[in-house]
Amino acid sequence: MTAKRSTRLVALLAVPAALTLSVAAPALAHDGNDSGSQTRHGRDYQVTLLPLNDSGARGTAQLTLQGRQLTVKIESQGLVPGQPHAQHIHGSTTGHEFTCPDTSADKNGDGIVSTAEGLPAYGDINISLTTKGDTSKASGLAVDRMPVADKNGNLSYARTITVSQAVADHISRLHVVQHGIDPNGNGMYDFGKGKSELDPKLPQEATAPANCGTIDSHGGGHMANH
Ligand SMILES: [Cu+2]
Known about the structure:
Helices cover 11% and strands 26% of the residues. By secondary structure, it is of the alpha+beta class. Strands 1, 2, 3, 4, 5, 6, 7, 8 and 9 form a 9-stranded antiparallel beta sheet that branches. It is globular and about 45 Å long. Copper (II) ion binds next to strand 5 and strand 8. It comes from Streptomyces venezuelae (strain ATCC 10712 / CBS 650.69 / DSM 40230 / JCM 4526 / NBRC 13096 / PD 04745).
């Protein structure tokens, strides 16, 4: 059944251009020497993934950077069992600060912070954390290459990818988001919360964010005043 549902979601399109942010980036005031803890394997960054949309989905991510090789390990619980979960590193490496959204991002008041409503807070997709192949923004909704939660709603992910120098220099400005929720608890993505703004053929449930976590060691989610 998983395969079938996943297939139905394969047609997910890349985020339409209209949804991309056109926020002018303030002047860059970051020295590019992000903190994090140095180990002999590289520089480690810890992320605590906290639930959005009452998903109950939480987890941890560890990012290890060695040059431009980024190893991403994610362990999550409470996701929709047996369903694919699109996951991304969101945010900007050019000086604009983004962070995880709170419920105030729910502009239409339907009780769900949709992916589009969350974008002004968490920024555009920077890296798509696929299981194989392309990791660019273009693969943001390639659900056939996104990890699937097991029957208990647990998800484990590990992959090493090559990132741009900009990402390597500004990794702590970014944050991790996993998508896919099941507010009516029927064990699948359905149209109970309407259509996804990203593709009306898809349920909002399949693309709405389930959790989000900022990368540690950047002193919290303050807004830059430079
Ligand atoms: Cu995302």
